[in-house]
């Protein structure tokens, strides 16, 4: 056992069956403060507490009961918690933090040898309390959020259980998130060096896969892990349950398809969505693009009523990001008759647009600064820019382009306390374990329940029915595709066995035997150099590659362009 000193926590920042767990909250606050604050309050949203401290404690126990109803354990899980004045200003705050007080490895019942486990999960798998005199999780939350105009510009904690927080911050959602870290949703690698915690991997790292390197973190050197921690959009969770469940939880990602003019025609996939208004999944739109003009200051920022409403009516409005709220921009376009809005960012990258306005009835998306400039340049030349705002039916938002597996958060540069130990922010809908709180979350644990299945919280992998194996063989999209002159084909084997990997042309003629051998379970990568079995270079065209492993046969398509 390794006691974590200093405490390792994951911070969240702002910009019941018969086998249920018993999770109890231990109040470590002093008299008159935190959970013991005697300030009188009225019951709210199902929380019957009549003092500020009691309402806080009620929320913590309600969150503990939610996790307790999901996760089975015969060992009581003890969470020591406090409310303290943490960092906070008008623009941002540390809302709370939580993590395991101890890590354990090589205990009786451990599924993975030589691997650090969070205390609560270690106790569950060992079926005994491995540290009877200690607690399992530590949590600290920010008391400065309440009744403080200098903290989050006057936003307060909302202590109800019903999700009706309005413009305040729902404490319940944040506590569920933080307890998730303490129960197992975090890793303990030094992201700058890639070094293991006290020379051993943690359980979370067994399921981290880098699409570019084609390796699990447990198969990498320290330097490779350090590089992988900032491999944006290519660091994925390699657990079966999560990726199986993702099909029913994640939506297709939003895209913008530019039909004309030919100079900029194509599909924009670097797109941000909006918390307000209808989604393009349920409300796709197609039309010509018109740059807005509000006649004031930066005339294209749409912060005032539009003076070119006649041109915007019935069209898709293009608006530059500026100083006013996104909801203000979109509402001004809607009032002018726009059928949809594209907001061009004024800095590199994209974000998801926050806001709340129930009167907005048209969809809006954010595009990059470069894409916005390209569209504006064509409009200035008198070209008609015709686009479709829609979703991509062939992929899921928040998944990797190579494996299709759920992305972990790997921004570059690193964001200490957020990198890796969260789902990526590209997921749609928003997920509980993303690095920032989102107003559309409440008490649903979404993909995190399946994450806990992957790491061993359930004695049987519940997602694996008699028809669905607990582990599966997968054949991934080759990279690059199209390719010239070579491409890499990656696949994962559920078990050791005889494997064949073959290339066929469009007519079904066998072109190349790439693999014919016994291979171990796990990830593999094979390169094809565009040559047939005789060593001759094959012609441009469509080819199919087929993996045969055990009783499973999987095929995919690739294109060779010269």
In short:
With 562 residues, the protein is of the alpha+beta class. It has helices spanning 52-70, 119-126, 171-183, 222-228, 240-249, 309-312, 326-335, 369-380, 448-455; strands at 2-3, 10-14, 23-27, 77-84, 93-100, 102-104, 117-118, 137-142, 157-158, 169-170, 208-210, 215-216, 235-237, 254-260, 266-268, 285-291, 316-320, 340-344, 364-367, 386-391, 474-475, 487-493, 497-505, 510-519, 522-528, 541-549, 552-560. The protein folds into four domains: 1-184, no CATH class; 188-251 and 396-469, no CATH class; 254-388, Glucose Oxidase, domain 1, CATH 3.50.30.30; 474-560, Immunoglobulin-like.
Fold and architecture overview:
16% of the residues lie in helices and 25% in strands. With 562 residues, the protein is α+β, with helices and mostly antiparallel strands. The chain folds into four domains: 1-184, no CATH class; 188-251 and 396-469, no CATH class; 254-388, Glucose Oxidase, domain 1, CATH 3.50.30; 474-560, Sandwich (Immunoglobulin-like). Helix 6 (309-312) links the parallel strand 16 (285-291) and strand 17 (316-320). It is flat and about 80 Å long.
Spans with pLDDT under 50 lasting ≥5 residues?
2-18, 464-470
Q: Averaged pLDDT, please?
A: 90
Cα distance spanning the termini = 58 Å
Radius of gyration of CA atoms, rounded to a whole number:
26 Å
- Strand segment count: 27
Structural class: alpha+beta
Main sheet overview: 7 strands, mixed
Proportion of residues in extended strands: 25-35%
């Amino acid at each position: 056992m390794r006691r974590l000193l200093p405490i390792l926590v994951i911070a969240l920042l702002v910009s019941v069956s018969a086998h249920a767990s018993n999770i109890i909250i231990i109040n470590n606050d002093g008299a008159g403060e935190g959970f013991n604050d005697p300030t009188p309050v009225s019951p709210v949203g199902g929380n019957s507490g009549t003092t500020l401290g009691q309402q806080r404690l009620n929320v913590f126990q309600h969150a503990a009961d939610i996790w307790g109803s999901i996760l089975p354990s015969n060992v009581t899980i003890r969470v020591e918690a406090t409310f303290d004045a943490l960092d906070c200003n008008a623009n941002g705050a540390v809302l709370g933090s939580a993590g395991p007080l101890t890590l354990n490895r090589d205990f009786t019942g451990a599924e993975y040898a030589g691997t650090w486990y969070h205390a609560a999960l270690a106790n569950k798998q060992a079926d005994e309390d491995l540290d009877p005199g200690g607690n399992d999780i530590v949590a600290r939350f920010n008391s400065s959020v309440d009744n403080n105009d200098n903290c989050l510009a006057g936003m307060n904690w909302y202590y109800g259980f019903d999700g009706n927080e309005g413009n305040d911050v729902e404490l319940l959602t944040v506590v569920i998130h933080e307890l998730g870290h303490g129960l197992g949703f975090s890793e303990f690698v030094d992201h700058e060096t890639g070094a293991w915690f006290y020379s051993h991997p943690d359980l979370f790292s067994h399921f981290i896969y880098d699409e570019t390197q084609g390796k699990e973190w447990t198969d990498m050197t320290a330097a490779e892990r350090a590089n992988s921690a900032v491999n944006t959009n290519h660091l994925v969770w390699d657990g079966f349950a999560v990726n199986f469940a993702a099909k029913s939880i994640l939506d297709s990602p939003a895209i913008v398809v530019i039909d004309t003019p030919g100079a900029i025609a194509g599909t924009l996939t670097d797109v941000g969505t909006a918390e307000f208004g209808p989604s393009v999944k349920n409300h796709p739109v197609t039309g010509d693009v018109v740059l807005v003009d509000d006649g004031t200051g930066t005339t294209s920022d749409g912060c005032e009523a539009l003076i070119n409403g006649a041109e915007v009516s019935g069209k898709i409005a293009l608006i530059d990001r500026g100083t006013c709220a996104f909801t203000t921009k979109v509402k001004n376009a809607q009032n002018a008759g726009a059928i949809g809005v594209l907001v061009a960012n004024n800095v590199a990258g994209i974000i998801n647009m926050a806001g709340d306005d129930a009167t907005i009835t048209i969809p809006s998306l954010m595009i990059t600064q470069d894409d916005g400039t390209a569209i504006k340049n064509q409009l200035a030349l008198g070209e008609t820019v015709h686009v479709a705002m829609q979703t991509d039916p062939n992929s899921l938002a928040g998944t990797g382009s190579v494996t299709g597996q759920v992305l972990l958060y790997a921004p570059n540069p690193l964001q200490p306390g957020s990198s890796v130990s969260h789902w990526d922010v590209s997921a749609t809908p928003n997920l509980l374990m993303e690095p920032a709180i989102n107003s559309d979350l409440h008490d649903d644990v979404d993909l995190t329940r399946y994450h806990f299945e992957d790491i061993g919280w359930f004695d049987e992998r519940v997602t694996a029915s008699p028809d669905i194996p607990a582990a599966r063989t997968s054949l991934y999209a080759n990279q690059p595709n199209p390719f010239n002159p070579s491409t890499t084909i990656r696949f994962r084997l559920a078990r050791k066995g005889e494997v064949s990997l073959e290339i066929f042309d469009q007519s079904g003629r066998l072109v190349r035997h790439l693999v014919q051998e016994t291979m171990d379970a796990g990830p593999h990568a094979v390169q094809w150099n565009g040559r047939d079995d005789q060593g001759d270079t094959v012609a441009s065209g469509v080819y199919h590659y087929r993996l045969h492993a055990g009783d499973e046969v999987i095929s995919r398509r690739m294109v060779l362009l010269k």
